[in-house]
Fold these 2 entries.
Entry 1:
Amino acid sequence: MFKAWVTDRPEWGFDGDEQPAAAFGLPSFACGSGEDLAKAKAHEWSIELANVPLAWQNHFAGAQPGEGVVIGHPDTGYRRHPEIAANLLTGLGRDLVDNDDDPQDELKKTFPWQNGGHGTGTASVIVSPRGAADANPQNAVSGTAPHAKLVPFRVSDSVVVVDTLNLARAIELATDRGVDVISISMGGVGSDRLHDAVVYATSRGVIVLAAAGNCVRFVVFPAAYDEVVAVAACDAERGIWKGSSRGRAVDITAPGDRVWHATANANDALNNVSQGSGTSYAVATVAGIAALWLAKHGRNTIISACGGKERIASTFSQLVRDTATPVPGWPSGQFGGGLVNADALLSAQLPNGRTVPTLAPTATQHVPLGRGGLTTFGQLFESTVRSAQPLLAAAPGPANGLDDGLADLLRTTADKVPADLGQVGQELAFYLATDPELYRRFEDAVSPEQDEDAVDDVRKQLLEKGVSDALQIKLSR
């Protein structure tokens, strides 16, 4: 089981020079909300930035945006907040934590890593009806697909994914129960089980989208998988949200800083709204746009146009990138096609039935990102490797600095690293990805400056953790 910090809880992050709580071991990764921009005060700023109201106007004359589309939503569960209650299909949902048919969020906040109410908030960004649901103009969230339906799945009390089995089961169950889109506002380090679930869904015509990650230096899983639409986050001024993960695995960027969403916690009347920051909200925005795309064209038309249901997800991924708005100043190759543009996406022509989207991966092309090999470490340390070798953004594999750092850590030579990682790579990736201080020290070892003491520090800390005998032998030889 793997986990990684992907929180969008404000108390876990920090602004400016304020340090995060030492109890969580979080280093000074940029996180928390960005600048309190005037444009973000408007309740519909995020959907306007993504050209969603324009898409409604131009493509749904006499029709309801998102109608007929069902969205699977693995998260912390749901509460019957006025902003989402009318669009919930709770009877199709499932609680994978308690193994029953009531996926209601228990709103647990006993421990700092619990995110009670998160599922209600992200759901509202997708399916909340336009305007104030309770006639109170101060309480207003407008979802991107206000007439789509949403099936909630409770997979965890936290967006920090500890048990990837629950998420994998939710993806499969949502697929079996007929959803068209799956929106995942959580993530962690990959596993074969999780990837198998994603492949199961996309092969049956489901568009799977996931948050790129928060407060870490790499795109988390399942977002990093080729079959998944990975979504990074920006702010109301089209600036990059400082906490957003970035990299070659990102497909598209959407509003994610100070986004209005429904609020659910044990201390309120379940009718409030507030603002939150994180790629959780960015992916919810794009998931709703995917529902608009399906609602406009119709599932059967899209299947015919792209040559089979197994190509729906890759066709959407290609089109959402191609129709995105490029933003000057955004680093090339790190934020996908650019800022999502709902109107341009819905205006784009579908394929002719013979053209295979260029982003469609095949079984032989898929890179085993989560299996602990060199590709895994290239994914985890992409930002560091990029700074050492700028041309890496277009290259398929890790740079020599990373190879040499791993060889030094495992007390071997670069040519023998792949074989060693075949034995202990997943375990080593787990420790580096889930311990921020350890991650930072290994970054120091493979960065252009190459701190000479960093590898020894990492090796010492790993041995103190009580690693497996196999990894201990390689670290000590």
Note: The radius of gyration is 21 Å.
Entry 2:
Amino acid sequence: MLSRRHFLHFAGLGGLSLAGLPLLPGCSTAVPAPSAPGPDPLPDDPSKPWWLRKNFAPVGESEARDLAIVGALPPTLSGLYLRNGPNPKGVESRHWFVGDGMVHGVLLDKGKAPWYRARFVQTPVLGGAKRGEGPPGLAEHQASTGILGYQGRVFCGQEVGLPYEIKKNDLSTVGPYDFSGKLKTAMTAHPKIDPVTGELMFFAYGLSDPIITYHRCDAKGALVQTETIPVPKALMMHDFQVTETRVIFMDLPMLFDLDRAIAGDPLPYVWRPESGARLGVMPRAGTAADVKWIEVDPCFVFHTWNAWDDPADPNVVHLEGVRFPSLWDKGSTDFNTTGSPHRFSIDLARAKVSLTKLDDRFVEFPRINPARQGRRYRYGYGVTTTLEPSEPGATPALNQIVKYDWVAGKTVVHALPADQEAGEAMFVQDPQGTAEDDGWLLAYVFSRATSRSHLLVLDATDVAGGPVAKVELPGRVPHGFHGDFLPTGA
């Protein structure tokens, strides 16, 4: 058995198969409002690992009001843009994935930007607290990966525990959320909302147990289905997909390694291509017995764009995402391997998967118009780079935002100025628009020249054109992971 100390060597990865701790009350109501910092010299201590240097380095909580705008914000772009990411507080994380969660939010309101806030998710392990105290539970993780607006609530998620709810008005923490006591496993960082039915679907995977657990909520937010699906070995599955009728799981050869966990590896997963790889397809309301597994060549997929049922053949399902031919060959802190866009066409009748490469370039953080989730779609968005990694193991800085037109076979790129680096670019629908790409792309962009960040707004119908607007922020937004947009009134 692993000790508490060994679990916390890979902070936040404890307890998928363990009982959760009692839920916390509101955690941060007594936290005083932080002030806005000024730009500071970019941290670059060569003695630290790459995920603690330059614009990966953490920042403190901050806020600012009445933000300056370059250009003009569209008046119909009103709502709250949020993005989550790892931001270690007071301690140095041993892996990029396991820093304390910090949410960066900008409120947009009828052409103005009333406020920006950066707030920690107030979890029991914030700042390295509770090390060595008792067994881990579902509430003990950093909540540092994804963010989701759902049923008027805002959830922060990580790979391994219950989602943490935060308040929209000030980003303070409410506490873990367990769907009225029904959720007994984690909610991973990539749940899917059906835009037509309103159903929410998500999953968990066992840390050391060879299982996937699928969950489905109805349109009112009630958890109505939990299905445990056995797999041959304990795996890491960061994302999944859904169509109008089906769920797609990815059993890929990134496997939990007990010896590495005991030795204190910060993320004890290893690439084992000899174990094979497969995709599993199940009806959305199906059971483990209904899953059809089909082998594919070994690969790994962190993130997907979408999946849909083939309109011409009810036995065919298509899945599109960023495929890595291998990952972490030199250990879990080595991010120099790159993935590229691929389509997996799954023929259930013939038990065969056809693979189509859609682009040669490295792309990550794929996004779509969420109104097309689970349906055939035309446009996909992502971020890419023309740069080499700054040092061995480091993920390269992303300096281009890309739009794919899968129907026309065209690609349009927005190239950032030479000193700037982008995070995930998410699509926000124009409420007055009618076409699939009527809307905007929002991304936090960091400038090395000023050591500050801004919120970039692009016209999604004219990605190659200049910015529609830039919302100036008081300091840096470190590189992080995933965001969501909550329209006013949502």
Note: The mean pLDDT is 91.
